[in-house]
């Protein structure tokens, strides 16, 4: 539902822009409302989850997102659009923290690294939302389309909410402390959080390097194909679709990869593959090589964000998810404008090489902290499953 609703809003941005009569600069500031509302809400959501529980907060944020998506087509100025997008962004950011925290609880309960599967659902929801939006755009106004999305999102939230409220799970808290000669034992409180906060921040930096690339690809991937290589609109759109589909498929296989190879290998190899793929995509002179590079990049970055967020959650609970997510989505906020600024002076191909550079940085960070992060993929101690750390 999250990916479906967000993609449905994105495909109607051009019509909403025309409705509010915003210049490109004004529209850009208004669109920052989504990211601003999301990032500002994330740390607050972590505290709400600790107080009220992950499942109730997930439901509440889902309701805010569902209602918020109906608001943009009701505005008639850039300022009003920016204000309602703050509400939409707050629901989007809060839901991402709350449901990731709830997913971490399930990962811990199952003792299996199933987080990538949840993120695959987000990716496929985004693909479905974009496809349906493209089909409905010629026949429905943005107001009716987004009102329909709001109704669908409300129905899903209510249906899912009934299940979540009936099945609460014990919250994953700060990581257990390692005993010198025995199994890991649970410690709670501020000291435990202080002990793991630096590692949660490090995982957040890994997620930020990943989401920088996701944001850059969403905003600039098609423009690179059309503007630098002269691809037609359909082929340029297909290039981004290949990237998104490769990422979704990679996430479907993510749980099996994490169980077989361990988190460190998945992060390092994935980030290096994304770096190589994006370097080819940025500098290749022919369209088919660029699209192939997009596919490799999508496969490489597929499991970096979910693996980093899942580990942050097992270390720090909802606070860990909130802190790492703030870094991660901050990268998505930073990526598109940073690419644009660099492209202004050096050209878009050179600007896109920063995606490759940050993916390589993510690989270095993941490799550097492999010893500190050796506590297994999902375990909380007491017989929890461990994943091999390469």
Automatic annotation (TrEMBL):
<dbReference type="InterPro" id="IPR011701">
    <property type="entry name" value="MFS"/>
</dbReference>
<feature type="transmembrane region" description="Helical">
    <location>
        <begin position="20"/>
        <end position="40"/>
    </location>
</feature>
<feature type="domain" description="Major facilitator superfamily (MFS) profile">
    <location>
        <begin position="1"/>
        <end position="374"/>
    </location>
</feature>
<feature type="transmembrane region" description="Helical">
    <location>
        <begin position="321"/>
        <end position="342"/>
    </location>
</feature>
<feature type="transmembrane region" description="Helical">
    <location>
        <begin position="120"/>
        <end position="140"/>
    </location>
</feature>
<keyword id="KW-0472">Membrane</keyword>
<feature type="transmembrane region" description="Helical">
    <location>
        <begin position="233"/>
        <end position="254"/>
    </location>
</feature>
<dbReference type="InterPro" id="IPR051788">
    <property type="entry name" value="MFS_Transporter"/>
</dbReference>
<keyword id="KW-0812">Transmembrane</keyword>
<dbReference type="InterPro" id="IPR036259">
    <property type="entry name" value="MFS_trans_sf"/>
</dbReference>
<protein>
    <submittedName>
        <fullName>MFS transporter</fullName>
    </submittedName>
</protein>
<keyword id="KW-1133">Transmembrane helix</keyword>
<dbReference type="Pfam" id="PF07690">
    <property type="entry name" value="MFS_1"/>
</dbReference>
<feature type="transmembrane region" description="Helical">
    <location>
        <begin position="266"/>
        <end position="284"/>
    </location>
</feature>
<feature type="transmembrane region" description="Helical">
    <location>
        <begin position="146"/>
        <end position="165"/>
    </location>
</feature>
<feature type="transmembrane region" description="Helical">
    <location>
        <begin position="52"/>
        <end position="72"/>
    </location>
</feature>
<feature type="transmembrane region" description="Helical">
    <location>
        <begin position="196"/>
        <end position="213"/>
    </location>
</feature>
<feature type="transmembrane region" description="Helical">
    <location>
        <begin position="348"/>
        <end position="369"/>
    </location>
</feature>
<feature type="transmembrane region" description="Helical">
    <location>
        <begin position="78"/>
        <end position="108"/>
    </location>
</feature>
<feature type="transmembrane region" description="Helical">
    <location>
        <begin position="290"/>
        <end position="309"/>
    </location>
</feature>
<dbReference type="InterPro" id="IPR020846">
    <property type="entry name" value="MFS_dom"/>
</dbReference>
């Amino acid at each position: 539902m999250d990916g479906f609703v967000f993609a449905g809003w994105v495909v109607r941005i051009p019509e909403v822009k025309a409705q509010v009569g915003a210049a490109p600069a004004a529209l850009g500031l208004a669109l920052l409302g989504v990211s601003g509302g999301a990032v500002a809400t994330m740390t607050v959501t972590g505290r709400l989850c600790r107080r009220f529980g992950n499942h109730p907060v997930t439901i509440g944020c889902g309701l805010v997102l569902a209602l918020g998506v109906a608001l943009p087509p009701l505005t008639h100025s850039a300022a009003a659009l920016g204000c309602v997008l703050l509400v939409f962004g707050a629901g989007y950011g809060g839901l991402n923290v709350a449901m990731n925290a709830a997913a971490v609880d399930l990962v811990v309960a199952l003792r299996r690294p199933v987080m990538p599967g949840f993120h695959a659902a987000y990716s496929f929801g985004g693909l479905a939302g974009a496809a349906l939006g493209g089909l409905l755009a010629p026949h429905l106004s943005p107001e009716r389309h987004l009102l329909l999305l709001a109704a669908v999102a409300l129905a899903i939230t209510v249906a899912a909410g009934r299940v979540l409220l009936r099945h609460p799970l014990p919250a994953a808290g700060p990581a257990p402390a390692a005993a010198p000669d025995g199994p890991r034992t649970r410690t709670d409180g501020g000291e435990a959080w202080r002990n793991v906060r630096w590692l949660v921040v490090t995982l957040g930096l890994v997620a930020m390097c990943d989401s920088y690339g996701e944001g850059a690809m969403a905003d600039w991937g098609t423009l690179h194909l059309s503007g630098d290589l002269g691809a037609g609109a359909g082929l340029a759109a297909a290039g981004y679709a290949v990237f998104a589909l490769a990422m979704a498929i990679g996430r479907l296989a993510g749980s099996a990869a994490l169980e077989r190879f361990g988190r460190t290998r998945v992060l390092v190899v994935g980030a290096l593959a994304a770096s190589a793929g994006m370097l080819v995509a940025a500098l290749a002179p022919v369209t088919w090589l660029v699209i192939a590079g997009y596919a490799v990049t999508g496969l490489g970055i597929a499991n970096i964000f979910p693996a980093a967020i899942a580990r942050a959650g097992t270390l720090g609970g909802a606070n860990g998810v909130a802190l790492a997510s703030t870094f991660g989505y901050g990268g998505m906020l930073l990526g598109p404008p940073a690419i644009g600024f660099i492209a202004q002076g050096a050209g878009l191909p050179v600007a896109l090489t920063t995606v490759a550079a940050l993916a390589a940085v993510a690989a270095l960070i993941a490799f550097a902290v492999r010893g500190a992060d050796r506590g297994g993929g999902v375990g909380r101690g007491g017989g929890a499953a461990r994943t091999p750390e390469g």
